[in-house]
Amino acid sequence: MNPITFFEPLRPYIGVILSGLPTTLILTFGGFGIGFLIGPLLAFLEVYGPMWLARAASVIEEIIRGIPLLVILFLVFFGLPSLGIQLSPVVSAIIAIGIRSFAYQSQIIRSAILSIPRGQWEAALSLGMSPVEAFINVIAPQAFRIAIPGLVNQFTIDLKDTSLAYAIGVAELFTESVHVAQVILDYMPPLVFVALIYFALTYSASLGAGLLYKKLSIPGLGGGQQA
Hints:
Layout: H1 3-7, H2 14-18, H3 21-48, H4 51-65, H5 69-79, H6 89-114, H7 118-126, H8 131-161, H9 173-184, H10 188-216
Helix pairs in contact: 3-4, 3-6, 3-8, 4-6, 5-6, 6-8, 7-8, 8-10, 9-10
């Protein structure tokens, strides 16, 4: 089939579909940003916190990872109003994606922290650093470099998960493609087109992450190129 002929019905509506792109990016960066704020804190508590606090952080992570994102999305958008908290569809989607994201980001960062030799932590403490200072100045910079591939993978997952915001009426890429499909009475061209957009976004993120990982890699620790 000729691609030009296949996508011809979309020509007047390409702008409509692309109008959902800014919202998709807002949901992605917003949700991932929430995850990146909370995930490292959970990881720190799991590795360095008191046993009861580490266990509590681990339980929170496991519970959230076990709940489908669509359920979390509905709990935030439809459930919170019963508690007197009314959020817009966009804010609800960002929070839901962020909740799911921080549970996975904490696991990624925890694994990266555990890959760093324990001696570095002990050396930092012996120099007079507090546990928080040792984590921020010694452990976190190395853990971040090691965690880059996993974090970017989570970013692409968050990006694709934004399509679930369709369920609460957020006008993102997938929602707009469905609207166009309903107008032209053909789902195939709009969905193929939006699938190609998602692929282009995720592939670009992966390429950028690969370059960043090579640039920031630590020789002998966490892979990457040797100096």
